[in-house]
TrEMBL record:
Signal peptide: none annotated. Pfam families: Polyketide_cyc2 (PF10604). It comes from Nostocoides australiense Ben110. InterPro entries: Polyketide_cyclase/dehydratase, START-like_dom_sf. This is Polyketide cyclase/dehydrase. It comes from the Bacteria. SUPFAM superfamilies: Bet v1-like.
């Protein structure tokens, strides 16, 4: 059992079909366009269950990589990937709604985060303040994905 962290989750309604939103969130190489913390992702052109990729994150002067593995992949419904360094799982869930898609982004760590991640977060990322930043970042990411998807919809 790791160090407990709270579930982070938010949703946004997007005036674009699930296929459009899915195409955007599964192109993880675009994550830097919407994430306040992830600057770049090194990944295959297409991903699926079991795919691995590396995220390059930045908070102020601190720069660090994360290794992700896709653990849930249901086309036009859910993408989830687990971060090896901290044990958290990030997900995007899509739900068709009238005139578009409800997109939910979440960070969960049912078994808590690793000891390494707990110490790293406390020493270099501001501890609980970083969790609040991630929570705000999810909302900012969703707002940016909404703008991108509504601009790119067919």
């Amino acid at each position: 059992m790791g160090h407990p962290v709270r579930l982070l989750s938010a949703s946004v309604d997007i005036a674009a079909p699930p296929a459009t939103v899915w195409r955007i969130v599964t192109n993880v190489r675009r994550t830097g366009e919407w994430s306040p913390e992830c600057r770049k992702v090194l990944a295959p052109k297409t991903i699926g269950a079991g795919s691995r990729f590396v995220g390059i994150n930045q908070r102020r002067l601190m720069l660090w990589p994360t290794n992700a593995k896709v653990v849930r992949f249901t086309p036009e419904r859910e993408l989830a990937y687990r971060i090896a360094e901290n044990g958290s799982t990030w997900s995007y869930s899509l739900e068709p709604i009238d005139h578009g898609t409800r997109l939910t982004e979440a960070r969960e760590a049912a078994d808590g985060i690793t000891g390494f991640a707990h110490v790293f977060t406390k020493l270099f990322l501001g501890g609980e303040a970083h969790t609040s930043e991630l929570d705000d970042g999810i909302r900012a990411s969703l707002d940016r994905i909404k703008v991108i998807a509504e601009r790119e919809r067919p």
